[in-house]
């Protein structure tokens, strides 16, 4: 039988539940620089101390926002694989297009996942997320996640797709057309599979 939570534990859980969507909205609407503990606590109607009691520190709030974005991307990619034709090439192509579409539709979330993290040391959860994505890609492509050659091949293939996506979703003077980018994702995957026949 589970011991009932104390009033303090319930209060801290409520703060976490309310803080996450608010922090997420601030980051996605205004950028990471707009998120600070004082503002978040004020908007929640709690003290900064209560906010820290609930999360530990502000980076923990940011990690929670990133975790939600990680789950959104993982769900999109899983759905893409499930809806694709069963051939490895088609499944990997579906992953590439889904990844591109996520980045275009959710550029701030994509930045949180793949650019913001470049400035912080990865934690265990980040590493598990990245390994999970790589394993999904390898399995979708008909490779063996335990094989170092499979890992290296799919890492190199995905590096080229990631490079294209990073340019397509970045605001630049000369923007990449999304439809053209989708075509090139397919060409990158086809070119890679021509060097690694699995279908």
From TrEMBL:
List, alphabetically, the InterPro entries matched: Homeodomain-like_sf, HTH-type_TetR-like_transc_reg, HTH_TetR, MT1864/Rv1816-like_C, Tet_transcr_reg_TetR-rel_C_sf
Per UniProt, which keywords does this protein have? DNA-binding, Transcription, Transcription regulation
Q: Where does the record place the HTH tetR-type domain?
A: 13-73
Q: Could you list the residue ranges that cross the membrane?
A: none
Q: By its UniProt entry, which PROSITE patterns does this protein fall under?
A: HTH_TETR_2 (PS50977)
Specify the DNA-binding region ranges: 36-55
| Coiled-coil spans in chain | none
Pfam hit, one: TetR_C_33
Q: Tell me the protein's name.
A: TetR/AcrR family transcriptional regulator
